Amino acid sequence: MLPKNTTTSLPFEIRQSPIAGLGAFAVRRIRKGQRIIEYTGERISADEAARRYDDGRMTRHHTLLFEVDEHTMIDAAVGGNESRYLNHSCAPNCRAVDQDGRIFIEAICNIQPGVELTYDYQYESDESPAEALERYPCYCGAETCRGTIVYPW
Ligand SMILES: [Zn+2]
Known about the structure:
This protein is α+β, with helices and mostly antiparallel strands. The chain is built from three helices and ten strands, in the order ββββααββββββα. The chain has one domain (22-135): SET domain (Beta-clip-like), CATH 2.170.270. Residues 89-90, 138, 140, 142, 145-146 line the site of zinc ion (ZN). Zinc ion binds at residues 89-90, 138, 140, 142, 145-146.
């Protein structure tokens, strides 16, 4: 069973993040495996995403596109919820789970109040490591930071 309403009582709040812009921070303990929020937005084709955002690959990290599969994207700029504020980290405490094409953000460890919620965006890219580092830099600050949100090249 899918949760009927994932946004009535969010376990996080949105505020300034040291990683980038705004981020999502836990306001209460979140247990490992807990489903936190659905990544919502308009479901569009990869072609439509490319039209909408000029060159999807180049600008994807500035957009709110989530790639469900090679044909389908979720554009959180249209009808998206608070899930779009979760930043990328190379050492994340959440992950995106695909359940029949719907995307849910789920905790992969116990998370204490005040901790920023992150997941690995795992952008696919045809670029070389050097290009990926330049075009899609990561500022997550993790010791294991790979320097870019692209994964794996
Ligand atoms: Zn990083």
